[in-house]
């Protein structure tokens, strides 16, 4: 079992420069604690995500850390020039001395896509075309590519990634269509949401991966060569009461920011691919398994239960969110890394 760290870098109610400074301190602490990889989200026009250009942020993280791997989860491929993204991936792989992991996706929010003049119904087709183009460009000195949305002819590729043939691809999915696609392409994979919901996606991924015959770029540190993970919001404290004290307001602000664009557009129900069933409160999120909070023992026991049920080998922890203070996040991370991680690495 490996442990990763996820972050939206959402609005925390303090100056943005302060927020960034705190996140870099936290990243260094996670690096020292033995966290496997820091994955950062990409969202646009929402307080849910204050690093909508993840490559810039990850460049800072690359130089603030030494061992922890890093990457977007995910780059929203329909919003990029594939040629420019090829170059960015190469730069980040060298800035991090070969620690880059490349998450890719089409974009979960139809509102965000629309702001960028991308129709949601077209986004999967555009995403697949962009992925094929980026994949080709990372492994060649001269890019020739002809697709419906992207065409390049005899473009010199002066930059190559440090990792060969290129950094591994990851996919995060909240539906079985995407989960199956990720398995068919041998990617590393993460799902989210209530435990039964996450299990459906994880099972779809595993079935497609088995049919394919294995990962495209195996990682020896994961059983079977593939990272198969689930995202969980983790809050650890010396007592259950103390964990709830800072976890409840943090989680409920986070839930509000997850729904910020939907509320702005007057959407009260689920729409399009915003289909992850979520609790409206901290307590509901604990009940459905997406939040794990309490003493180290309580957190360990719940992780063990979920790992057994879901069949994952990667726990993607989300530990610094909402308006949590840096001190609260660092204390939670310290307890998790010293009293939880060592007792679960055998899973």
What does this structure look like?
The protein is an alpha/beta fold. It is built from twelve helices and twelve strands. It has helices at residues 16-33, 54-64, 82-95, 110-115, 120-137, 176-184, 195-212, 240-258, 260-264, 282-288, 296-310, 326-344, and strands at residues 2-7, 37-40, 69-72, 75-76, 102-105, 142-146, 151-156, 169-172, 188-191, 228-236, 291-294, 314-318. The strands form two sheets. Strands 1, 2, 3, 4, 5, 8, 9, 10, 11 and 12 form a ten-stranded parallel beta sheet that branches. Helix 7 links the parallel strand 9 (188-191) and strand 10.
How is the topology of this model organized?
Layout: E1 2-7, H1 16-33, E2 37-40, H2 54-64, E3 69-72, E4 75-76, H3 82-95, E5 102-105, H4 110-115, H5 120-137, E6 142-146, E7 151-156, E8 169-172, H6 176-184, E9 188-191, H7 195-212, E10 228-236, H8 240-258, H9 260-264, H10 282-288, E11 291-294, H11 296-310, E12 314-318, H12 326-344
**Helical content (DSSP H or I, runs of 4+):** 40-55%
Q: What is the β-strand count?
A: 12
The overall pLDDT average reads 96
Order of helices and strands: EHEHEEHEHHEEEHEHEHHHEHEH
